[in-house]
Amino acid sequence: MSELALAELGYAALLISFFLTLYAAGAGFFAARRNRFDWYASARNALYVVAALTTLAVAILEWALITHQFRFEYVALQTSRAQPLLYNVSALWGGQEGSLLFWAWLLAVFTAIVLAQNRDKNRELMPYVATGLAVAQGFFLALMTLATNPAESGFIVVTPWTPNALNALVGNPFRLLDFTPRDGQGLNPLLQNPGMFIHPVTQYLGYVGFTIPFAFAMAALFTSRLSDAWIRTTRRWTLVSWLFLSLGLLFGMQWAYMELGWGGYWGWDAVENASLMPWLTGTAYLHSVMIQERRGMLKVWNLVLIMLTFGLSILGTFITRSGVIQSVHAFGVSSLGPWFLAFLGVTLLSFLYLLFNRMDQLKEENELDSLLSRESSFLLNNLILVGAAFATLWGTIFPMVSEAFTGKKVTVGAPFFNQVNGPIFFALVVLIGICPLIGWRRATPENLLRNFLRPFVVSLLVAVALFGLGVREWYGVLTFSAVAFVLMTIGMEFYRGTVARMHAQAENPVTAFVRLMLGNRRRFGGYIVHLGVILAVLGIAGSSFYQVETQVNLKPGETARLKQYALQYEGLQTYPTENRQVIAARLSVLDAASGARLGTLAPEKNFYESPIPDASQWTTEVAVRTTLLEDLYVILAGFDIKANTATIKIIINPLVVWLWIGFTLLIAGTVFAALPEGREAHAAARARMPEALAQA
Amino acid sequence: MNSIATPADRGVIVKTGGKAKFVIGALVILGAIAYVTFSSFQANAIYYLTLKELNAQRGSLINQPVRINAPLDKSSIQFDANTLLLKFNLKDDNLVLPVVYKGVKPDTFEQGESVVAEGKLGPDGTFYATTILVKCPSKYESAAPTQQP
């Protein structure tokens, strides 16, 4: 087939998908209103076909990317002949049109999965769920197949069958050039990093995933089936979406740390904030649904939280796509922004309208009993998480808002976010230690003393020890002793559970520990996640409070010193690779005191030559020596090939590896909690029932 | 597990005073977060100006932290790799602003179409930048990141 035919086929697949989502939305709604399950079955089939057609569209674009079909404008911009295959594949989500297609495709596949999962379940909810998902899907398909630049033509869509109309579509991934370039421009070299291969995928999986619980929440409002059925059905979807957002954060931070080469992993950039905000509200949601499941409370709050999480996911996509906010990641200014805002506004307003209409059916089944209870500590954690999301949102979008209203642009940078979120996150850390150990309903002073006396003593000892070791910064002492407090409370939970089991079941410690974990996946998965968060906090605190750096210009043979390290410069080395020219500064790392050799580091500057004028680009490849205590992080900032000199920047980032370890644990814990509960847990749940009834 | 919620529960535990303390508590916490947010915002907010706006308010902005966004005059770029001193001019029509930045030069600087610089305007008319961010011309190029504070 010719390129033209394939481009038209790809476009047609998307256009037909769009009409099918319109049909599915209509049929699903009709089915829900009139209780006509046959119409729902038809809507479901339409959405299955959408999944197949969008898969075809992705396959066509991937084929074009891999086989260098440069007449496709997207292929010409995102790939080049010299670019490694890996990055030609990942170019699918490297640019705007491709990522729209990727979003739509993921949503189509998720939709098909959730519809198949619930084939015989949730019969009342599902028609509305299908409707909601079809609408969201239709929006992304419309962006690709019908949307033009609203700034030029208003919210007008083109008639796609007129000549050349396809090229006027700003979101169309299948635009063709009127000639075939010999080579393409290629993906920005900064994005050519294995972390960048996986980061956008996980980020999108998370963003898209939250559409599913949101659609169920909407369906619950429509049907007035507002018990926790919708929460239970989407528990695993929510956990997995949150898992992917966490993975997105992890890979994003690692990419920033290794590829951007400024010595940090988080700069409070708009796009970073965009990925953090739904994670924060999603975290709040994961906690507060437990209260609804156990005690029938916080129903309105849970609906609001899932709405916020979905809204912030769409906002995240919008911020990344629109370039409306100055950002290191923005894809350049795009004209799709107003479409996103319109979609977001309409969706959230309809949700809120429904919510207000159902207020009388959302009465709490229980009331909060005591300020000192699990419920209120969860509520506190929720307020703080949402507060952090709000503060971050405020700092992120205020420049836009202030310009719109006053004409003056005011902006804030990292100091604002650190100042606000620092104390908020500190409070969260302490709560992580307290929440899981406070009793439900009403905690007694004995309960508190029993659970918190030892951790408190340990944290005091840590504070004293740190002071003795010469740590004088109050925020450092405070943070590290809080970390010790929480580690102790988590450790005690594992210890007590194991000991109790050893006695009750006469098991050896290992068996008891393993069975305890396997029998209570949700609970202990949660503890592992908490442990991960605390270790990450350790890494964040160490690297934010105690980073040191220096900058030196070196001739061969000269040595630079920072703390206990001596870096001896041996000279420059230049060599070509498949797609770039490498200039590396070779450094021997020695122990400054003993002179013992610790290894070598070779920070690089890479030159990516492009056939397109002005598109050639330099990138910086840092060299890092990691230990459990600190990272020695070296940047080649400048060099002179003739004189064989190099200017290097040396940074010591204490404890940073714990950030990666912590996030890995967090992810492991989430996976553990998301796996199906074992038989023992069901038995345990049954055993708890009489107790629960007795309490009531 | 809604087994806990029996009608008796709902009927019996209706303490009107009970709810108020939670509402107050929540409001206090949200109020505190809002206060910290807005006060930190006031303390850290800086103007984001074009070259023309900067020029118009030049007198009042000396040594005030500001962020500016202006086209880069590529022919003016000077970088000393030994001292890591980067000098360049931003220009908008006939306005020219010399900028000095000490640090690692962004990799995409030479291709930069415009620069976002944060720093202070010195009395000598030179802008001393602490952070610079390059905006690249290509439609899909991401803006090049630079050293962050």
Could you give a short description of this structure?
The complex is a heterodimer of chains A (696) and B (149). Chain A has 696 residues and is an alpha+beta fold.
List keywords for this structure.
heterodimer, A: 696 residues, alpha+beta, Four Helix Bundle (Hemerythrin (Met), subunit A), 4 domains, six-stranded antiparallel beta sheet, 21 helices, 11 strands, 62% helix, 11% strand, flat, disordered C terminus, B: 149 residues, alpha/beta, OB fold (Dihydrolipoamide Acetyltransferase, E2P), 2 domains, five-stranded mixed barrel, 30% helix
Give a written overview of the molecule.
The complex is a heterodimer of chains A (696) and B (149). Chain A has 696 residues and is an alpha+beta fold. Helices cover 62% and strands 11% of the residues of chain A. Chain A folds into four domains: 1-192, Four Helix Bundle (Hemerythrin (Met), subunit A) (Up-down Bundle), CATH 1.20.120; 227-358 and 373-422, no CATH class; 444-545 and 664-695, no CATH class; 548-654, no CATH class. In chain A, the strands form two sheets. In chain A, strands 3, 4, 5, 6, 7 and 8 form a six-stranded antiparallel beta sheet that branches. In chain A, strands 2-11-10-9 form a four-stranded antiparallel beta sheet. With 149 residues, chain B is of the alpha/beta class. Chain B has four helices and six strands. Chain B has helices at 7-12, 16-44, 51-56, 58-61, and strands at residues 46-49, 65-80, 85-92, 95-102, 114-121, 127-135. Strand 1 of chain A pairs antiparallel with strand 1 (46-49) of chain B, so a sheet runs across the interface.
